[in-house]
Amino acid sequence: MSKAKDTFNNIKVLIIGSGIIGKSNAFKLSDYGFDITLVDHDEIHNSSHAALGILMGKMYQKRKGRSWILRQKSSELWPKWINILQSYNPNLRIEKPLYQLTNDQKKFNKLASFANNYPHDDLEIVEAESNILDPISEIFKGNKLQGIISRQDGRINPKVLLETLDIALKLKNIKTINNQIIKIKKNNKKWNLVLKTGEILSSEIVILCNSLDSLKLINPEIYDIKLKPVLGQAVEIFNEEKDINFLSLPKFLNINGKNLITINEKKIIIGSTDEYNFKPEDSYLNELFEFLEHKPNWLDKKNISKRWFGIRSRPEGEPSPLLKSLEKGLIICSGFYKNGILLAPACSHWISEEIKKHI
Ligand SMILES: Cc1cc2nc3c(=O)[nH]c(=O)nc-3n(C[C@H](O)[C@H](O)[C@H](O)COP(=O)(O)OP(=O)(O)OC[C@H]3O[C@@H](n4cnc5c(N)ncnc54)[C@H](O)[C@@H]3O)c2cc1C
């Protein structure tokens, strides 16, 4: 690595967008000795802060194609990243396992045959009669839930992850600028980047990690790239019913497509929706309360103690995410409509290889 460090020393890389993708890219590229600057004007309100952090690697049923390759790579890299990041924050970890349950018999049969087809992937089939499901049946009374337990999937707390990356980036001397890039322009071999406050930055390499707004910085006549907004809502439920204790549940569940995270005895998080819009709609919020055949009393909007949303971007006409070299010194790493937390290490790995073509 020290040879690579010498080669890339002093080459300026400017990363636009400081969500999980921008920060992960900065973290990975810092190993190579680049002179890295991260620019963001509003990172507190990005989709990474809204994420639930569920990692669905082995549970992914489509076992071929680009999406699977990225998941596989990330599943391999996450434990290694966690090991390194724990030296900056010992509280960061991947918590496992993840349950995927359904009350649709056909879907269960599909899950069971998927688990049987991959006997080495730590996927356990749990039928409705299994004792393991007793606490779940108690809390989701009247629903015949069954499915699989994935022992290698789980969750990373996104807030702890982002904080840890911040600590790491600071110690690695990555520069951060709290500002918005409003224009980028090629000037000989360098890129000039205009900040909203008028200053101009200059860099050999620019990486667009600013999700939907990447499009505002590139020429639509040259690049046929389309991204659409996908808003996701999540809620925290606070239940006061005495006979319900969420701690009796597994910590991480996906039930009929909705993710659930147990916080404590009385609190549980449920998310998320897929809304092709910039504003959260109440009609979509209902989905977070209507995903079971029999709705338990506690699963009621009156029990919402927190509600939030994030806006992700989804490529149109091509698969997510967008990982492309646009021209010399300009790379786009955007369009993480789902699974940005899961895919971050695999995409940073791709960037660290791709960037060499630009030098
Ligand atoms: C409710 C919800 C639940 C989710 N749950 C999960 C989950 O369980 N697991 C999972 O893997 N993923 C999950 N996701 C998806 C995940 O959050 C996203 O895929 C991921 O956060 C995308 O990260 P990003 O860095 O590409 O974008 P963002 O986090 O949105 O970051 C983009 C950044 O670019 C900045 N920016 C934009 N324009 C400019 C500019 N011109 N100049 C400077 N900065 C700029 C913005 O301020 C922003 O900070 C969830 C998302 C939501 C909304």
For the termini, the CA-CA separation is 17 Å
Tally of helical runs: 9
Rg measurement, Å: 22 Å
Q: What is the CATH top level name of the largest domain? A: Alpha Beta
Number of strands: 20
Q: In the residues, how many domains can be counted?
A: 2
> Main beta sheet: strand number and arrangement?
8 strands, mixed
**Which regions are unreliable across 5 or more consecutive residues at pLDDT < 50?**
none
Short description:
The chain is an alpha+beta fold and 359 residues long. It has helices at residues 2-8, 20-29, 47-50, 66-85, 105-117, 134-139, 158-171, 282-285, 340-354; strands at 12-16, 35-40, 54-55, 94-95, 98-102, 123-126, 146-150, 154-156, 175-178, 181-187, 190-195, 200-203, 205-208, 227-238, 252-255, 258-262, 267-271, 304-315, 322-327, 330-334. The mean pLDDT is 96.
Description:
This protein is an alpha+beta fold and 359 residues long. It folds into two domains: 2-79 and 158-225 and 317-358, FAD/NAD(P)-binding domain; 97-151 and 228-315, D-Amino Acid Oxidase, Chain A, domain 2. The chain has nine helices and 20 strands. It has helices at residues 2-8, 20-29, 47-50, 66-85, 105-117, 134-139, 158-171, 282-285, 340-354; strands spanning 12-16, 35-40, 54-55, 94-95, 98-102, 123-126, 146-150, 154-156, 175-178, 181-187, 190-195, 200-203, 205-208, 227-238, 252-255, 258-262, 267-271, 304-315, 322-327, 330-334. The strands form four sheets. It has an eight-stranded mixed sheet. α2 (20-29) runs parallel beside α7 and α2 (20-29) packs parallel to α9 (340-354). The longest helix is centred in the N-terminal third of the chain and has 20 residues, at 66-85. It starts with a helix and ends in a 5-residue tail after the last helix. The mean pLDDT is 96. The structure holds flavin-adenine dinucleotide (FAD). Flavin-adenine dinucleotide is lined by residues 16-22, 39-43, 46-48, 50-54, 180-181, 209-211, 213, 232, 234, 259, 271-272, 310, 312, 334, 336, 338-342. Flavin-adenine dinucleotide (FAD) binds next to α2, β2, α3, β14 and β18.
